[in-house]
From TrEMBL:
One of its GO terms (cellular component) is male germ cell nucleus. It holds the Pfam family Topoisom_I. This is DNA topoisomerase I. It comes from Ficedula albicollis. Residues 24-39 have a biased composition (Basic residues).
Amino acid sequence: MSGDQLHNDSQIEADFRANDSHKHKDKHKDREHRHKEHKKDKEKDREKSKHSNSEHKDSSEKKHKDKEKTKHKDGSSEKHKDKHKDKDKEKRKEEKMKSSSGDIKIKKEKENGFSSPPRIKDEPDDDGFYTSPKEDSKPLKRPREDDEWEEERYPEGIKWKFLEHKGPVFAPPYEPLPENVKFYYDGKVMKLSTKAEEVATFFAKMLDHEYTTKEIFRKNFFKDWRKEMTSEEKSTITNLSKCDFTHMSQYFKAQSEARKQMSKEEKQKIKEENERLLKEYGYCVMDNHKERIANFKIEPPGLFRGRGNHPKMGMLKRRIMPEDIIINCSKDSKIPAPPPGHKWKEVRHDNKVTWLVSWTENIQGSIKYIMLNPSSRIKGEKDWQKYETARRLKKCVDKIRNQYREDWKSKEMKVRQRAVALYFIDKLALRAGNEKEEGETADTVGCCSLRVEHIKLHPELDGQEYVVEFDFLGKDSIRYYNKVPVEKRVFKNLQLFMENKQPEDDLFDRLNTSILNKHLQDLMEGLTAKVFRTYNASITLQQQLKELTNPDDNIPAKILSYNRANRAVAILCNHQRAPPKTFEKSMMNLQSKIDAKKEQLADARRELKSAKADAKVRRDEKSKKTVESKKKAVQRIEEQLMKLEVQATDREENKQIALGTSKLNYLDPRISVAWCKKWGIPIEKIYNKTQREKFAWAIDMAEEDYEF
DNA sequence: ACTGAGACTTAGGTCTAGCGCC
DNA sequence: GGCGCTAGACCTAAGTCTCAGT
């Protein structure tokens, strides 16, 4: 049955429309008016996103090559792999021991994150208690042969057996302003109560930001501020526009200036204090490992600034007190003490979760957590698992693609919508798109929540047929703008889905993320919409690296290729950033450096030439040597110039693209590690220290022939 | 099937230490 | 030794997905 024929399948369609109208009517009550704002906003919003699309060439071609070798090498849970690995590791370790002539070298290697610490830790002291956080940056321990995997050790859902920590660090208490810093209302000095003053300072600190001029921000702020005022203040201060915070603002600017001017000693003192805090509160013990905590400091009070056009911007984020805090730790641990004179809201011992501390935030009423650093075992293992799931998808993605292509022809509207949505998620790496509560957050969408107004259909555009133009705000109100040629069937289906709908109606009115994910679950265990993003990102990196790496290139040029591969992924995932404020300037600087270098090169060449001429006449050793050294100089400068030029290209191409997010969250680190090993690129060129800590498991695990 | 709470990952913006340059 | 810049640390908002309750 063709798409066109289906169009006449009146029964189904009638059913679909009838159903539809009541459904989206109440769902989109006041969307119409929001829609207008959205449009306005959208126009203002950064004109980002070019977006070229990479098709799926990948997968099947590799299928066969993958086979045996990879299978037992990385096939996730198979035990024999571990023996394998352990042997390799043993070998490496031996080499290291032999070659490392002193402490310096050992230390260096540790920092690289490349090697296991030189002490023999795989075997006897595996269960030992770690004291140095440096030493245990190995979240995924390859077990001894008779050892068990962590997941096996812990029955389903159990995340730890022992957990001890010191509790959170609270925000410093409010320090009232000095007497000479004034607040004016309606032109007259006014002394504020401490509570009102504190909230006023939040606003004063933001005065330079554009959003203090925004209507919603001001309205929300003023409403919440008034709640903190005494009744006298409340009756006096009735109009935000009559409030003058400029003196306060100047005071804070002076303060931060003074902070910059602090002496070395003072700065050192602050640094030491921070280190002390980190040492005391920044670590916990989870099952015999000392682990770094990610965010042990409680978020200080302030004014909420959501991203994009957020309806709650400007609201007061209240101060979190010990009485708000739930502590999670094990029963047999030393339970953290609340600050003197306070108590915790609750102390619980839930080892089915990974968080140490939680509280409920007052803006959205959601729960916030203190959890472990990405370098921790528990996060690393989860991360690894994520990529293993994506690799499992690789094995069945062809089947799934064939299936959804079939489903475009289904008699059931629900199935068709699901199939088209899945096609977008797969091809364009869109996010799932959960429904959001209206009026609670900025109006953003993902795949399942796309509305008719977010796409335009062009039967023909710029010489291409069946083009879909996407224009919507996604996560963090980042604009997604893309024109994509699609299969005729998809196009026809979209026309069908859009029939008789208003712009503010859901495009996929019969679909939501729960339906979609349930279906995906049936196709593959553990499959959800976001796995496609991970899979497509990683496979794109692998494929791009293969394509772009030129074996004859030097290291900087290879790194440029890596960054380009990374960039292809960032573009696919629509990871954008605001161009850095100093972008133009720094580009100019770089260009002048390049120009200078070019001149230097010209000079060096001239010198070489004359030296050659000289040598020809004189024919003595000394002048020959001069020629040699001049030659070297030219070469060196050429290299420097090339490095600069590469840097300029890289930076220019990166203007609006953020590489970090994909590197950190979507790219299987083993691909990068393998690439580094294959081409002899030091891993530090690709991953900085933090990243090496986070990906320690991969650095340890992947060999040069690793295939995603 | 639907809902909301809860847990956890993903995300871009901002701040600042420390590096390279003069 | 001081200065300007940038990488990377820090921050916390905003997603995804699961699960329990109805």
